[in-house]
Amino acid sequence: GNVLESFGNARTSRNANSSRFGKQLRLRLKSPGSPCTDLFAQTTTYLLEASRVAGRPQQERSFHVFYELLAGSSSGTLASMGLHASPSRHALLRAEPPAAGGPGGAAEEASRDQCRFREVREALGRFGLGVEAEAAFETLA
Question: How far apart are CA 67 and CA 111, in angstroms?
C-alpha cells in the first residue's frame, strides 16, 4: 500500500490522496483439494498520469514520493542529490500548500511526508530492494 500510494498518488483539489493510476489486484487460491492453500496476489498498474510530473493545477501536488523524498532525507543526502528540503525551491514541485493552520496544513503535510518516506524505505527494504530503492530516489532527484 505505502509504496503504490507514494509513487502513484497525489494531492488534488478534491482528494488529498488521489490515485493517479489504475490498478487491478488479482487474487488466486490453489484449486480445491490441493494439499496447499497458497494465496497468490498480483497487482497490475496501468495509465500512470505522467503529465502530473511536469504540469498540474497550482493548488495540486505532483506524486507524493517527490515531497516525501524532500521531507524524509537528511540535509547531507539532499545536498548530494542537488536538492533543497523546500518543495517551493523546485520548479516542478511548486504548489499552493494547504492553509498553514488546521487539519491538512503545510506543517502537518510535511510531517506526514517525512513519516511516509520512512515507511516507504522500510517497505522496500523488506522486499530486499534497499539498494535499488536508493538508486530510484537518486533518479527521482
Answer: 11
